[in-house]
Specification:
- It contains 10 helices and 4 strands.
- With about 240 residues, the chain is mainly alpha-helical.
- The longest helix is centred in the middle third of the chain and has 34 residues, at about 115-150.
- The relative contact order is 0.08.
Length: about 240
């Protein structure tokens, strides 16, 4: 019997039943395909399914040239796992008491164990991504806040000339957010390049959630970085602001 992937690779759109396959050897016997089974993730959930053949156990030594030293058995049952394990041991030991049964697990345990590595890597990626976003937010806030604070004297002059608080705030926000938008646009343009996308894990170039939430967070940070020092500067007496260095 062959899996669905093998049928699609070697006989796409055709019926593989009755076809014959053999190993690349003159002495290898020809084997007739009698059925197609669904794919099984033998190498893990993250690995692509390969082409696979399944043999009737007594025929495996003739077909493969050797007998497998271990066999994996899957049992479907509505009974508790302990009851199934006890019944399986009883049946196997009735045939041969020297046969060991090891690593008895439920399918939930098998899936959980197979996800241990990817789950750990995902946690690390989330932590480092959170740190990177935090550093980017802190850096953005520091640069924008410093640039607005340096304009305290200019804000004092505008206030002394009759500019109201709302007009000054709109001016500072428009100029500060313009720089933030330009920086985010350049960053997104680099993120959509094929070179940088090769370093992304589990994120496609069209992931709207990722490429929408991160710029939104940085825009909010830039907004606060411009608004807080600008609002503080507008509350300073114009004479004091003019003397600010």
């Amino acid at each position: 019997m062959i899996n669905q992937t093998m049928a699609n690779v070697f006989w796409p759109g055709q019926n593989p039943l009755g076809r014959r396959v053999s190993q690349p050897s003159d002495e290898a016997p020809w084997i007739t395909i009698v059925g197609v089974v669904k794919d099984v993730k033998q190498g893990g959930l993250e690995e692509e399914t390969g082409t696979e053949l399944y043999f009737y156990s007594p025929q495996s030594a003739t077909a493969l040239g050797f007998a497998p030293r271990s066999v994996n058995v899957v049992i479907r049952s509505s009974l508790p796992a302990d009851s199934v394990a006890a019944a399986a041991r009883k049946e196997v030991w009735a045939m041969d008491s020297s046969l060991p049964l090891v690593n008895l697990r439920t399918m939930e345990q098998v899936l959980s164990d197979s996800l241990t590595g990817p789950r750990f890597i995902t946690i690390l990626l989330v932590i480092f991504a959170g740190l990177a976003l935090t550093l980017a937010a802190v850096g953005t806030y520091g640069v924008m806040s410093y640039s607005v604070a340096e304009r305290t004297g200019e804000i004092g002059i505008r206030m002394a000339m009759g500019a109201d608080t709302g007009r000054v705030l709109r001016l500072v926000l428009s100029q500060g957010l313009r720089l933030a938008v330009i920086g985010l646009a350049l960053g997104l343009a680099l993120a959509f390049t094929r070179f940088l996308s090769s370093f992304l894990f589990g994120v496609s170039q069209t992931d709207l959630v990722t490429f929408g939430s991160v710029p939104a967070v940085l825009l909010v940070v830039a907004l606060l970085a411009c608004l807080v020092p600008a609002f503080r500067a507008t509350r300073v007496d114009p004479v004091t602001a003019l003397r600010h260095e």
